[in-house]
Amino acid sequence: MVVLGGFHHVKLPVSDVHKSLEWYRRVLRLDLAIEFVEDGVLRGVALTDPARTVTLALREEPRLAAQLSGFDPVALGVPTLEALRAWADHLDVLGERHGEIAEGSVGWLIPGLIDPDGIEIRLYTLQEQSASRP
């Protein structure tokens, strides 16, 4: 039987790996796991959440990062609506612009969180909607 067990990691292009590394650490609370150094220059990083359930890689590719500006290639899972509300509060404290919690096709989401290259990162609940409202 051929089986997949989830994603190993997602890789995003960035124009400035140092600037993006700082943003993803500060805003999404990701920890640096691996640095990719080529010819003595940092060209990429792998980041993970404290529980090691999500790995996001950033690779310095300015042309590709510019092409993804305005697109939302990643939706990070948040366990519950209550946890999503906590993320909204966290983003507000940081002064990070984002959309209001909205009903998605399945679950709830925070749209409109934009990284330094204009790439939208969405936070999405892993639970379906219930009678409760955001």
Automatic annotation (TrEMBL):
Matches recorded under InterPro entries: Glyas_Bleomycin-R_OHBP_Dase, Glyas_Fos-R_dOase_dom, VOC_core
One Pfam family from the record: Glyoxalase
VOC domain boundaries: 6-126
Protein name: Glyoxalase
Annotated organism of origin: Nonomuraea cavernae
